[in-house]
Amino acid sequence: LASNLNKAEVIDPAGKRRIVGIFKGELIYRRSDISVALTAKKWRYQGRKVREAELSKPAKTVKARKKSEPKTFRALTSYGVSDTSEQKVDDESYVEDDGMDHIFGRWQTEEWSPDPVGPNDEIPVNEYKNIELALINPGLVHLEVRGIAKVAKKLGLPYAPCLLGFEGHGGNRTPTIRGIVVHEHNADLLRCAYTEWESQAVEQEHAQRRKAIYGRWKRLIAGMLTKERLDRQYGGEENK
What we know:
- The protein is of the alpha+beta class.
- The chain is built from 3 helices and 13 strands, in the order βββββαββββββαββα.
- Strands 10-12-13-11 form a 4-stranded mixed β-sheet. A 3-stranded antiparallel β-sheet has the order 5-8-7.
- Strand 2 and strand 3 form a beta hairpin.
């Protein structure tokens, strides 16, 4: 029954011609002809894109979930040596700011994949200046190594933070940013540079630790010598 459909469920157009019965004046459809409709953006996560001609004809319009601004990630104006370009999503242009979501059925979509990014192309990012792992473009590589962004910045290589997803529920969802995205031809160079930087950092840490240990021993020995000198100078007179 159409009245029993969930918020995001729709009846496939072909299924509307396969009526199996009537119940209390309401048409009954096959369960196999019922599918879940998604927003244009969510279809991209499924490797599909809403066709241009269908953007103005959503299968359904539903009340949008209230969105909260990310609290833990603050975007920089640029990363690396060049400004990253904001990724344009054509099918997101048809979104009315009326508190409603326009959702589309699978029959309104076609297969889609992100555009390839060449060695000289800028890294396409979203409005928050990061790139989603689920939508990463061919020609880009995700490097999930702690501290590797510092190395990329020192080398002057363009990069963007990588958004893995969101944690939490409801309005308390926070983005999970981990690792960076770089051009594929820079990945090996960056890995080697990171290995060298990490070894130097370990050596510096050991050197600082040795220096701190030597300093503590020096203070301890100086204190013992001072105590011994004071005992020689004043200890004898007190005994008398």
